[in-house]
Amino acid sequence: MIEGDVGVEDLVYWGPNQTALTKNIPLYPGAGPHYLTGPTQVCGAQPGDVLKIEILSLTLRKNPLTNKAYGVNLQNGPWLPSNTKNADGTNTSASVVSTVIYEVEEDEYGGWGVPVYGFTNPPVISPSGTDESGSIIPHKTNYGVKTSANASGFDPVTYPVGFQSTLNSTTDIQYMNASFQYRIPVRKFLGTIGVTPANAVKYINGAPAGTKGAASWAPSRFGGNMDNWRVGAGATLYVQVEIPGAGFYLGDCHAAQGDAEISGTAIEASLDGVYRLTVLPAATLPAAMKNLSFPIVETATHIDIQGFAFNNYLDELAVPSAVATSGGASVDKALAHAYENARTFLVKGFGMQEREALSLISTGVDFGVTQVVDQNFGVHANIPKAIFSSKSGSGAGIFTGPSSRKLKAEKEEPEDLIGLLRRFEKK
After folding, report:
1. Is 419 left (phi over 0), alpha (psi -120 to 50) or beta?
2. Angle between helices 417-425 and 331-350 in degrees, nearest 10
3. Most CB within 10 Å of its CB: which of 165, 231, 299, 409?
4. Coil, strand or helix: which one is 308?
5. Does residue 47 lie in a domain region?
């Protein structure tokens, strides 16, 4: 999976006698586990502006040596041990981490993540000789790629210098005795995307020594590690700029994930992306976008309003790095903020009264648990654009004209979020 892919080799290379801080890609104290691209300076972006991020395409990065693409799903989510038991009634252990490897395939008919094998993660000694995270798990056999299509077994693994981790106990890797009679529909998206927060330095207070800034773990008003599968090709993200130049970043690529990300990860994979950045100046913003304090994800059919247990944990907590144990692991708080954010969006953007907005939300908006993983839990409010259709219809206000039964024959042109908000501001 790694050998032959120069980009991945560069990321995980760990030479002999190097520490986590001196290896090719350092692992700094207090940092998150994500590989990210950025920060990128966006010309002209100033605090108070909104950055419009259009994701034009996402494609799987195949290993050039094998022409295969793989993804990894870990089962170590923080929510499960605190709230559930195993199927046999025993307690779920937070110390047991397991992994399932998927081969991800796509063709003109669609894409699937097909499970290949799974195992329980063993303790590992890095090439530096110490027990450190971030090093390669030393498998004796390559269970992912056979020598040929007709081979009955799998290839032995030969680790080159720089990838020579060892097990730190006599216990061998325990492989899953699983049937793996299923496949997962591919749903490629970016788990982490956003702008640099102006208050990132506050994260250092109370964080581990050597922490350089806000970790990539917790999402917030600036976007970040939202893990919302709707942030895929064709989607647009809106976030308020907090520093000159925005400091745009993206990464944490996924091949598929369900709402809640219940096991702790998605199918973590490697993607190539094409995106377009547009600065929306503060002076020209629609009312709903002014002083934007939460991320908005727009798709062809929906407006997705994001809420978190803490909308702004960097300012709300004295020790932001402790967000997970300071109230961040709360679906109730995330739901409350998702509702408040959606209501504020409707009141400001569409001139609604409080109770009017509440009625719309209760009857027409779907709330979902985005993730219970990222220290600051997330809930989203999914608003159908059809609610604000420009088609003619019965009733008062902007919906005047023929009976709604006649609308089936009408064709409506797609309308983006900014156009929709401006149309209502003119009414």
Report:
1. alpha
2. 50
3. 231
4. strand
5. no
Distance CA 20, CA 29 (A): 9
Final residue in a domain of this structure, among 185, 219, 236: 185
Tokens standing for residue 408: 């089936």
- 71 plus 160 within the same structural domain: yes
110-120/184-185 β-pairing: antiparallel
Residues 157 and 259 in one domain: no
Name 315's Cβ contacts closer than 8 Å, sequence gap at least 6: 199, 202
pLDDT tens figures, 392-411? 444 444 444 343 434 444 45
- Tokens standing for 85? 């038991």
CB 70 within 8 A of CB 364: no
DSSP state of 245: T
Domain with 312, as residue range(s), is 190-425
Nearest CA-CA partner of 298 in 388, 382, 192, 191: 382
- pTM of the predicted model as reported, rounded to 2 decimal places: 0.92
What is the pLDDT averaged over residues 89-97?
87
The Cα-based distances of 117 to 157, 322, 334 in angstroms read 16, 35, 35
What total of structural domains would you count in the chain?
2
In the DSSP assignment, the letter for residue 320 is G
Q: How does residue 87 score in pLDDT terms, banded at 50, 70 and 90?
A: very high
Burial 2-15 (b: 16+ CB within 10 A, else e): bbebeebeeebbbe
Residue 66 has pLDDT above 90, yes or no: no
pLDDT at 172 over 80: no
**pLDDT higher than 70, residue 146:** no
Structure tokens at 216: 């990539």
Q: What is the mean pLDDT of residues 343-354?
A: 96
Nearest CA among 396, 414, 394 for reference residue 405: 394
